[in-house]
Design brief:
This protein is of the alpha+beta class and 301 residues long. It contains six helices and 13 strands. It has helices spanning 44-62, 70-91, 188-191, 196-203, 209-224, 279-300, and strands spanning 2-10, 19-25, 29-37, 100-108, 111-117, 121-126, 129-133, 170-171, 175-176, 182-186, 231-239, 250-251, 261-262.
């Protein structure tokens, strides 16, 4: 399995960054996750961090080195993340619960399957066009009654993790990937100010994802202005194992069986204080993973 990936998160015009994102992988499987802690409720960054850590922990348990039941895993991980948030709120005797949206994609073999809850999105771009994207669990994307032209509030979500009601989530059928396919997970700080056409154009501009992803983030920040929302995205390009140029991207083929690599921060939050994961921290994590891969490959040679 081989892919190029870039992840970026910016606070924008908000007081704090409540978005969290990361990815982890084994020799034959990769998981990409993004969560957007919801404003208007306490400790959205805690809900987002708990979602990532719970899903990553379950993935580490199940990916040996592949996940046997992909859809079952995605469903179980969404509910487990929700329950962890509810336990946290109960432990702290909170009157209102922390809440978050989430989108997670599992790549395995030559297929991608994803789960989402709320309005964090996943886009798939192939040959310069939008192949598919998730549909938000919001009033804005819910089918309107016939003939209705009533305005809707796009920020009003129908479901999320951490709500007192049981969350609803969608799981896609597996999508067979082709070399060069690009997948992006993003928070509404991206798609809320950039339309789908611009997102697709930028993702398929011919630039590597390490350039296209920060371009999208910067465009979203500029368009959002002084009051920009948190801007967070993970973009990856799928490359088959025979892709020439071994220095491009991440190749999992040199990883030892049983090795689990991750950019998702370990450990549980304490008292809601979670340090923002800036770009430098992300790049250090990626560099550490790549160094571990190189060491593993050197041992085999």
């Amino acid at each position: 399995m081989k892919f190029s990936v870039f992840q970026v998160s910016r606070k924008g015009g908000r007081l704090k960054n409540e978005d969290r994102m990361g990815y982890c992988y084994t020799r034959e499987s990769g998981l990409f996750v993004l969560a957007d802690g919801m404003g208007g409720h306490p400790e959205g960054e805690v809900a987002a961090q708990l979602a990532l850590q719970t899903i990553a922990a379950l993935y580490q348990r199940e990916a040996r080195p592949t996940v046997k039941d992909v859809k079952g895993f995605l469903a179980e991980s969404a509910m487990a993340a929700h329950q962890q948030i509810m336990r946290y709120a109960s432990h702290k005797a909170m009157l209102d619960t922390p809440r978050t949206t989430v989108v997670a994609a599992l790549l395995q073999g030559t297929a991608a399957t994803w789960m989402h809850c709320g309005d964090s999105r996943l886009y798939v771009v192939r040959d310069g066009r939008l192949l598919t994207r998730t549909r938000d669990h919001s009033h804005a994307e819910r089918p309107k009654p016939h003939g209705s032209d009533m305005p809707v509030n796009r920020n009003l979500l129908l479901t999320c993790l951490g709500s007192p009601t049981t969350p609803l989530f969608d799981i896609s059928p597996p999508l067979q990937l082709q070399r060069g396919d690009r997948i992006m997970l993003c928070s509404d700080g991206v798609w809320g100010v950039l339309d789908d056409a611009l997102i697709v154009h930028t993702l398929s501009s011919g630039k590597p994802v390490s350039d296209a992803a920060p371009d999208l983030a910067e465009m979203a920040l500029r368009k959002g202005g002084a009051h920009s929302d948190n801007v967070t995205l993970i973009a990856l390009e799928w490359e088959m194992s025979e892709t020439p140029g071994e220095d491009r991207g991440i190749s999992t083929e040199t990883i030892d069986d049983g090795v689990f690599a991750s950019t998702i921060q370990a450990g549980m939050p304490s008292d809601g204080e979670i340090e923002d994961m800036d770009e430098d921290a992300i790049e250090r994590s990626i560099a550490e993973i790549n160094e571990a891969i190189r060491r593993s490959a050197a041992r085999k040679s």
